[in-house]
Structure formats: structure tokens, C-alpha cells
């Protein structure tokens, strides 16, 4: 049914849950699993600060991805892990198109109404622009 899955991973408990659901689906349908973590640059960047922020965030999310990868090493599937830089929703939609993803799985962090209004919701934006099905995991 789903030959390729993409998990948007931000290190949260909900993203971990989405990852394990993706693995379960992948085992049932012999699917490929892609895991994408996105490092968001600062809103008001200065070159030196931006570079340091991105490197620090890459290191941190890289450690989380390594831990996630080691946690599931026993699974016969071999997920593909990648870190991108940019706006999370944009990078997730772009990766989904690039890898011909059929289902995107995202964790829902449950920000309040003000945060959603101010920052927008990654899940909502991905749902609006993705070419494929999107599952939001709570």
C-alpha cells in the first residue's frame, strides 16, 4: 500500500512515536523509511551566529538520530536518515517530492493557539502543500 514513508523528526516524544508507527507500517508493507530532521536557521541571522547555530543544532539532532538509529538496529528495515537546513515544512514537502513519498508522518507538539497563530504549524503547512497523505501523530 505505502512503498515509501517519510518521518519528520524534531527529537520530540511525538516525533519518536511517529517514527515507530512508520516502522510498523513499513514492516507490514515492505516500505522504505526516510527520516528527515530539519535545522531551522535563526530568524534574524548574522553570518557568524547562523553558522554556529546551524552547526550546534546539527550536532544535537545528529546525536538524537544516531540514538534513534541504534535503538532500531535490530529491525530488518534500513531507514535513511538525513538532516536538512531551512524551514521544516518546506524541507519536508521538498523531500517528499524528491523521494516520491506516499505517506508523511509527523508528531504533533500541541502548541497553544497563540503559538500556532504566531509561528504557524508545520503539520498544517505540510498537510496543505504535500502531494501525498499525511499522518499527524499525537
Describe this structure in words.
The protein has 138 residues and is α/β, with parallel strands linked by helices. It is built from five helices and five strands, in the order βαβαβαβααβ. The chain has a five-stranded parallel β-sheet, with helices on both faces. Strand 2, helix 2 and strand 3 form a beta-alpha-beta unit. Helix 3 packs parallel to helix 5. The longest helix is centred in the middle third of the chain and has 25 residues. The two termini are 23 Å apart. The mean pLDDT is 88.
Give helix and strand order, one letter per element, not per position: EHEHEHEHHE
Distance between the termini: 23 Å
- Indicate the mean pLDDT: 88
Strand order of the largest sheet: 3-2-1-4-5
Backbone CA Rg: 15 Å
| Structural category | alpha/beta
How large is the count of helical segments? 5
Number of strands: 5
Q: What is the overall silhouette?
A: globular
Poorly predicted runs are none
> What is the strand content?
15-25%
Proportion of helical residues: 40-55%
Largest sheet: 5 strands, parallel
Amino acid at each position: 500500500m505505502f512503498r515509501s514513508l517519510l518521518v519528520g523528526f524534531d527529537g520530540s516524544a511525538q516525533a519518536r512515536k511517529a517514527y515507530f508507527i512508520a516502522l510498523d507500517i513499513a514492516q507490514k508493507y515492505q516500505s522504505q523509511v526516510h527520516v528527515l530532521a530539519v535545522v531551522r536557521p535563526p530568524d534574524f541571522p548574522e553570518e557568524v551566529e547562523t553558522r554556529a547555530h546551524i552547526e550546534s543544532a546539527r550536532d544535537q539532532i545528529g546525536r538524537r538520530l544516531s540514538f534513534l538509529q541504534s535503538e532500531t538496529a535490530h529491525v530488518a528495515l534500513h531507514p535513511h536518515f538525513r538532516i536538512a537546513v531551512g524551514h521544516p515544512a518546506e524541507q519536508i514537502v521538498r523531500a517528499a517530492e524528491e523521494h516520491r513519498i506516499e505517506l508523511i508522518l509527523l508528531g504533533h507538539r500541541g502548541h497553544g493557539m497563540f503559538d500556532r497563530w504566531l509561528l504557524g504549524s508545520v503539520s498544517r503547512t505540510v498537510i496543505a502543500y504535500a502531494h501525498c497523505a499525511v499522518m499527524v501523530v499525537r
